[in-house]
Write a structure and sequence with these properties.
Elements: H1 29-42, E1 52-55, H2 62-68, E2 73-78, E3 86-87, E4 101-104, H3 111-121, E5 124-130, H4 140-145, E6 150-153, H5 162-167, E7 178-184, E8 192-193
Parallel strand pairs: 1-2, 1-4, 2-3, 4-5, 6-8
Antiparallel strand pairs: 5-7, 6-7
Length: 199
């Protein structure tokens, strides 16, 4: 499956012509730490042992490396060639088994496909999405067909361009608001909305 560049890893929005190659914006560490701390504290019955986790849009490994800090076995892949994990792997057409969880920041335009496939592959799925993701009418059916257990909005705007700002290549402040959405098979009763504080 060939994917256009503008369909890949989207977190910052803006002019399509100004996005970097593959729309690659590394996920800041504090974003992944916030999720993992929540999962380990609030869902400890699922995280009482090391899990086998797939990060299928790993880029240069920013998210994978944080997840490893929590003692999990992380298998990383990406459709691009960033020099980390297994490269050139199209998650939507690649089928593997034996994963307990899939955690990723999916390509925005393919996010629904990522969600649906992930829920077939693993019992725990966590997706980093734009904060207004569930506000769209065309996602109403998705939410009701496979309602998540948690919607976890971040209480800060992550800086997906932090590295460039430190080097002076970018100015301004972060503008993107994001949320983690988490599905855990076998435990869903109703979706809980819990804001996450910055670690």
């Amino acid at each position: 499956m060939k994917i256009k560049q503008e369909q890949l890893q989207l977190t910052c929005g803006g002019d399509q012509t100004k996005r970097r190659e593959l729309d690659y914006y590394p996920t800041p560490k504090n974003v992944t730490h916030a999720l993992m701390k929540f999962l380990h504290n609030e869902c400890e019955w699922h995280f009482d042992r090391p899990l086998k986790i797939w990060e299928p849009a790993c880029g240069e490994g920013a998210m994978s490396e944080v997840i490893k800090e929590y003692g999990h076995d992380v298998w990383s892949s990406d459709i691009g060639f960033m020099g980390y994990g297994l490269q050139g792997v199209d998650f939507l057409t690649d089928f593997r088994s034996g994963f307990d969880a899939i955690i990723t920041n999916p390509p925005f335009n393919l996010s629904e496909s990522f969600i649906r496939k992930s829920l077939k592959e693993a019992r725990i799925v966590s997706m980093l999405l734009k904060s207004q993701y569930w506000h769209a009418k065309n996602r109403y059916d998705l939410f009701n067909a496979i309602p998540p257990q948690f919607v976890l909005p971040l209480t800060w705007r992550p800086d997906f361009l932090e590295h460039e700002r430190k080097q002076g290549d970018k100015k301004g402040t972060p503008t993107m608001e994001v949320t983690w959405t988490v599905w855990i098979k076998g435990t869903h009763k109703e979706t809980r909305y819990i804001p996450l504080l910055k670690p």
